[in-house]
Inverse folding.
């Protein structure tokens, strides 16, 4: 699933576009100050863009099989 940019938070620094190893983002500051998620299907969900965005403007949506199952520790101990 492609990452989502919150346009109300993004300041157009371009960090996400420059660090993404898969070049998911298209960014030409003169044309559009906010990066475009152009090749979302190429995202391999490394979450680098989300971690490096100082504005916390990116949310990487993990596909269901990649999400860790939540296990309540108390349930494991029968409490
Ligand atoms: S790193 Fe965050 S603030 Fe910078 S361009 Fe990308 S989404 Fe916008
Ligand atoms: S999660 Fe990784 S591969 Fe996907 S857009 Fe962000 S930096 Fe690129």
């Amino acid at each position: 699933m492609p990452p989502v940019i919150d346009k109300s938070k993004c300041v157009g620094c371009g960090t996400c576009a420059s660090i993404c190893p898969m070049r998911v983002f298209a960014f030409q500051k003169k044309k559009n100050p906010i990066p475009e998620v152009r090749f979302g299907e190429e995202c391999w969900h490394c979450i680098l863009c989300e971690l490096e965005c100082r504005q916390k403007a990116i949310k990487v949506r993990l596909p269901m099989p990649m999400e860790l199952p939540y296990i309540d520790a108390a349930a494991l101990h029968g409490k």
Observations:
- The chain has a mean pLDDT of 90.
- Helices lie at 15-19, 48-52, 73-76.
